[in-house]
Amino acid sequence: MAVYQMGPIAMDESFIYTFFPLLIAILLLIYIKSKEANETVGEQTGSTSSTYSLWDPDRKRPAVSDTAAPTFFQEPITPFDDSMEILSTPPHPFRPFKPKYHMTMGLEKCAPNDLFLLDSLYPSRIALRKRIVNEFPEMTLGASQTCDTTIKELYSYILSQHLPLRFPKLFTITADAEFKNHVSGDVFPAIPPKSSMEALKILATTVEDDILILQKEEERETYSLQGFIACFPNGFDSSKKMGMGLNEIHEPVPMFKERLALSMERFFGKLEVGKWVRRLNWTISTHDRLFLPTGNHHYEGEQIPEQPETVDLEKTFLRVERQVLLRLPASRDMVFFVKTYMTRLARVKEEGQGEALATAIDGWPEKLGVYKKRIVWGEAVKAALRA
Questions:
Q1: Is residue 120 in a domain?
Q2: How far apart are CA 177 and CA 187, in angstroms?
Q3: Within a domain: residue 79?
Q4: Average pLDDT of the segment spanning 204-209
Q5: Where would you find the membrane-spanning parts of this chain (predicted)?
Q6: What confidence category does residue 316 fall into, taking pLDDT thresholds of 50, 70 and 90?
Q7: For 225, phi and psi rounded to 5 degrees?
Q8: Angle between the 196-204 and 122-135 helix axes, to the nearest 10 degrees?
């Protein structure tokens, strides 16, 4: 058998006949895998070509997120399998009051799963919102021309993605590309209607959260109100706030300018897409009206109503607003979702929290107490809670 010398290596014929075919097979396999990898990356990124190659020692597979459309969230939404049971679940018992009030934004992380917290009141709340929208269309719905694309973006996400994915037994997309609400029986197009006002009306009667759309004004370096759904406002007529910046909107709120204005503007500018936050705000209401564009605040110069000697805790309520703030991925506009909770003070007292709530009412700063009308109902409510 012949022996071939290649430098320091000696190879016989059997080695050559075995080694070279094996080498060719390995190289061919590498080429095929490299081609498959390029095709896979092209499919993921939507590109017909790619620089990714197994032959490149510095190769890196492009991340899908580098080229894919921006998303609303950085965490996945998971289906609520027992979503029908939501309709028999009471509202979440938020009790955000503390012994001493601190004027802060009070932000917490909000998971995408918790954007909408549905409960047993959903059917009646949606029916009420329909009546309010029909009776007060100009005060409940509003949009400037600058937020048409923003409303469509929001509509598509809520109706086509979020609700059917999170609550698959309550909301579905039909074969005809229609959104069906199995609770109310309503059917709407999954694709946004051409009219922004029509889109807002559909949203207003599908979710029980009010929605405020804020857009950045480059000239003033601030965000201003350019669209709204306000079926359950608490002392604000949003139609009169259209076009106003954050400072103008909150001008009547005591201590806002000194304590919150600057930090809020900074936060708005830095909030990233996908990082949702929430906060809670509370007050006392001496009635159960949810649509309240005026009346729950006392403004400077107004006459102070006569103070009641007693109050009925069955007809007086802890009113809590759960506010979720997020940035839209395409338009980059900011959106507030506001859900209102009303709890009879009789129930708060039954929970053993009467003294805690009375102490929290005392804990409001003087100017804030005047603004929230503590000067009207404060003594009577505290006495009843402590009795």
A1: yes
A2: 10
A3: no
A4: 98
A5: 14-32
A6: very high
A7: -75, 120
A8: 140
pLDDT of residue 74: 64
pLDDT confidence of residue 295 = 76
For residue 90, give both structure tokens: 């009471």
182 lies in the same domain as 270: yes
Q: How many CB atoms lie within 10 A of CB 332?
A: 12
Shared domain for 234 and 339, answered yes or no, is yes
Is 137 strand, coil or helix? Answer: helix
185 and 263 part of one domain: yes
Distance CA 253, CA 259 (A): 11
Residue 12 pLDDT exceeds 80: no
Whether residue 68 lies inside any domain: the answer is: no
Running DSSP on this structure, what letter comes out for residue 159? I
Residue 336 DSSP SS3: strand
Q: Do residue 34 and residue 164 come from a single domain?
A: no
CB 150 within 8 A of CB 328: yes
Long-range contacts of 308-312 (CB under 8 A, 24+ apart): 308/376, 308/377, 308/380, 309/380, 310/380, 310/383, 310/384, 311/286, 311/377, 311/380, 311/381, 311/384
Q: In the chain, how many domains are there? A: 2
Answer yes or no: do 1 and 96 share one domain: no
Q: What pTM value is reported for the model? A: 0.80
DSSP bridge pairs for 215: 224
Cβ burial, residue 379 (10 Å; 0-12/13-18/19+) = middle
> How would you class 274 by CB atoms within 10 Å of its CB: exposed for 0-12, middle for 13-18, buried for 19 or more?
middle
Residue range of the domain that includes 117: 85-386
Q: Are both 93 and 35 inside the same structural domain?
A: no
Enter the tokens of residue 157: 């996400």
Quote the pLDDT of residue 57.
34
Q: Give domain status of residue 282, yes or no.
A: yes
Asked if 315 contacts 347 with a C-beta cutoff of 8 angstroms, the reply is no
DSSP letter for each residue of 219-268: TTTEEEEEEEE-SS-BS--GGGTTT-BHHHHTTTSTTHHHHTHHHHHHHH
* pLDDT attached to residue 218: 74
Same domain, 217 and 121: yes
Q: Are 253 and 126 in a shared domain?
A: yes
Residue 17 clears pLDDT 80, i.e. is over it: no
The CA-to-CA distance between both ends of the chain, in Å, stands at 111
pLDDT more than 90, % of the chain = 62
